[in-house]
Amino acid sequence: MTEDIVLYYFDARGKAELIRLIFAYLDIKYKDKRFGEHGDAFVEFKNFKKEKEIPFNQVPILEIGNLIFAQSQAIVRYLSKKYNICGNNDLNEFYADMIFCGVQDIHYKFNNTNLFKQNETTFLNEELPKWSGYFENLLKKNNTNYFVGDNLTYADLAVFNLYDDIETKYPNSLKNFPLLKAHNEFISNLPNIKNYITNRKESVY
After folding, report:
1. d(CA 78, CA 63)
2. What is the pTM for the complete model shown?
3. Beta strand 31-35 pairing with 67-70
4. What are the residues whose beta carbons fall under 8 Å from the beta carbon of 152, sequence distance 6 or more?
5. Does residue 118 register a pLDDT over 80?
6. Domains along the sequence of the chain with CATH
7. pLDDT tens-digit profile of 39-73?
8. For 1-132, where are the E strands, in sequence order?
9. Which residue stretches, if any, does this entry annotate as coiled coil (predicted)?
10. What is residue 78's three-state secondary structure?
11. What is the C-alpha to C-alpha distance for residues 106 and 112, in angstroms, rounded to an integer?
12. What is the pLDDT of residue 1?
C-alpha cells in the first residue's frame, strides 16, 4: 500500500520548491498543501499548528503516512537518499552534498537581496558572478551533463532551482557562464521537469 505524501508550505516557491522539483523529476504523487492559496496564510498556518505537532513550528513540513519531517535541507537529503539521487558512491554522495551546501550559501545571499533589499549591488557585481564561476568550474571539471558523476543527483536540481529563482528577478544572469546556462536548459527540458514548470503556479518568490 502506497503511503500518502503531503507537503505543507506557503503559497510560494521558497524553501519548498526544491522538494517539489524532486517529486516532479521522480514522478512521485503527493498533495501540495499551500497556506494562503484559498485564504489568509497566517490564519491557516496557525490552525495547522494547532492540529499537528511539528518540530520548530515552521514549514516546509513533509508528512509521509504518520511520520512528520521538518527542515527543508534535511527533507531534501532524506528524499535523495530514499530515491537514489544522492550519488552512486560515498565520494559522489559527498560531492553532491558539497554542491548543495554551496547552493544554500548563495541562495541565502540572493534571498537577502530579493526579499529584504540588502546589498543588491554587491550581490550582482560580486557574489553572483563569483559563485556562478564556482559552479561553472565544477561542471567543467566533471565534463558531463551533470555536476556529479554521469547521473542526475539532487545537486543538479538544487543548482537549477537556484538559477530558476535568480533569473526570475535578474534575467540573463548566466550569459557569461555557458556551461551553467546549458546545464539549466538541460534540466529544464527533462520531460517531468518541463511539465512541472509549464504547469506550476506563478509565484512572487
Report:
1. 13
2. 0.94
3. unpaired
4. 25, 85, 146, 187, 190
5. no
6. 5-83+194-199 (3.40.30.10), 90-190 (1.20.1050.10)
7. 899 899 999 999 988 999 999 999 999 999 999 99
8. 5-10, 31-35, 61-64, 67-70
9. none
10. helix
11. 10
12. 45
